[in-house]
């Protein structure tokens, strides 16, 4: 039987609760202990004490105590609620939901528990459960608008749009007086309802609703935009045209409005009409860029030339540095790619004479000349039109005219990067940074280039110029706090290049965790958005969160992490006796150093702890804050010490395969992991998906052959655990090899049809070495010969070098020297 | 801005804010305290929301209707749920489920569903699973 408190102790219990709310944890514990002295088995008090202890960072003890509390009083909803809260605090939402549900069964009328449960359900995307909770909450409080809106949202998320709309209508019908026009919550609710109607595809109804209920919405822009969209969808051309024209008058730089107008007018195919339309707006808004830039997308031939000439003159006269960035999207057309630099060259030639004729414009034209050189430098640095020597020549001319331009130096650094000289690139970028030390953009660029050159310490110092000085743990801690994903990615990749596996994995794991944080961040918005009435934004956020890990920030870091794990699997660190790899030796030393450092730090921490004990009144706050923040593996040594790298890789891989299935890099990475785990069906799934994306891809080709070789030996092996059923499916679904040709012939055909492509040649050659090991020496010679291909790039040559190294080939040195000859400015072959 | 501010608006914070912070705090209040606190809350709510803008009668009616559709909806979803299993009364070999779990790394529930949706034919299930989405 649960113990019953006396009146005085009930008062004390309320104090405990209040202390918890006010975060006066010590007082709370004291008061709780006072109750427990007399009633040592009072469940609710024990539970409250556990809750407070959890807030103090003693999670394990809190859980233990909460369990005791439950044993004392199984039927107390408070105990179950606290149990749920503890699970919530450690992010075990499923267990938390179970505990809340139990608490709710004991106390069905508790709005608080119901509310906590609902929030968890929507966080976990249990829409059916959320719907039930919201229905119960509405029954409890039917007069609040929030309850109705929340139920509508629940229906919406559960995929029942008309039901959601109906709920909102029901609420509207209960209103005696129309809400005031300045009622923001109402205005947003009306627009939300409108979006529900439109999402159901009934545009006439949506338009009618917009024109009646939404007429006075406070979000004017949304009103105009939706009206224009609906009118277009309904084919009411004239009104739609007018609506879009009004929008362009509001904002003449927004491409969507022009697109909408063109669609409404039905002139998508009529270039002349489109050109006329843009000209009209270019004239109407003399400073407008969009109306001048957009026609270049669809114009061809002389028309393009004329329009582009005008555009370029206008931009270069003003010395706009982003001119090239604005135009490079046109380079997919080879005609435009050739025309644009010719026009700029023309501008330079004519500009010079003009400057002589009209000295009054000298200021402007000098700007124009450097901008033109700058354009050409970027042009020759761009991957579709690369000629690095020319690029360097032009950027030097530009720098000559404006020696203090940050932009010009930045491009010069980028040219060095493309030369394959990361050291020089980093130097120049650093020089650019010193030209404007207060510019954050160039600061980050300089840091990035330092990371590319594996100068981690220097990069961190550079970043430190802009991070908060007072952050505990220095710039790196601040970059983590600020979730500076690009830096962590570059830093991790830099460590991976240097063979510092632990630190690399540490950084990639940080990024993984940052995405977790972003996922958790939405928690507050389930209640906040409803309270503020911003439902449309909330729904957008929910959709975004569902696709969070689609982001390239995630896929890049995750792919790099998987790559590191693959290397770790193929060449475990513990037996670093593989001879050739100096990286392994480095790493062993690194790990020893790290271990030593960790020991020292532990000793230091111990000493400090003792010191603090001796002065109990000092620095208690720090102690309280510390336990949650302390990192027990700052160098990632534990991560690198994994014995199951492939299982660890799955953590990164699973979201990749789920959210970026159309990326060939993801599928090929998935294949590598599954093959090493001997999950042949899943490997085949990745392979088939990759082949569907691009069957001629160099990696895909290699993987097809490797898969064939692997399953052949697996099927023949007597120890194979593969069931006959699986075997049959693999055999019948693996249709990527022509049945009648041998592997050798298949590979030779591939090589023959891609003999000009260095990357594919390399792939075919490594396949040849795999299927006929006797041919190894000739393969190595052939790899070295890819240097003679006219189209080979520095990056491809680097891949060839890596391949030769992995074979322990005798060709390595010869390859390095001839590559260094071919690219004298590159440092990567030294 | 001649219009009167609606009564639900409180200076400096919406009513929502006020309502919300109280519940968060009383997370583990004992029953009596909770009841006392929420009885403090409710009259104000009703006054605020129900006083002028909301027609209590209409709310009742709307709630009744909602309950009606709710149950109707509930039964209809139940029907759907019933329909599905009826369609899928498929004998599932546990060995096949185990195979799918092993090969495809699915949870048991998902593996069973996958197998059921292919009439219990494990080869079909495997095939369908690995075929790239068009």
TrEMBL record, chain A:
InterPro entries: NatA_aux_su (IPR021183), TPR-like_helical_dom_sf (IPR011990), TPR_rpt (IPR019734). Residues 600-636 have a biased composition (Basic and acidic residues). The keyword GTP-binding does not apply. Residues 573-643 are annotated as: Disordered. One of its GO terms (cellular component) is NatA complex. Residues 574-583 have a biased composition (Polar residues). Keywords: Repeat, TPR repeat. TPR repeats lie at residues 77-110, 372-405. GO terms for molecular function: acetyltransferase activator activity. It comes from the Eukaryota. This is TPR-like protein. It comes from Glarea lozoyensis (strain ATCC 20868 / MF5171).
Automatic annotation (TrEMBL), chain B:
Pfam families: UBA_HYPK (PF19026). Residues 42-64 have a biased composition (Basic and acidic residues). InterPro entries: Huntingtin-int_K, HYPK_UBA, NAC-like_UBA. One of its GO terms (biological process) is negative regulation of apoptotic process. Residues 90-130 form the Nascent polypeptide-associated complex subunit alpha-like UBA domain. Residues 1-85 are annotated as: Disordered. This is Nascent polypeptide-associated complex subunit alpha-like UBA domain-containing protein. It comes from Glarea lozoyensis (strain ATCC 74030 / MF5533).
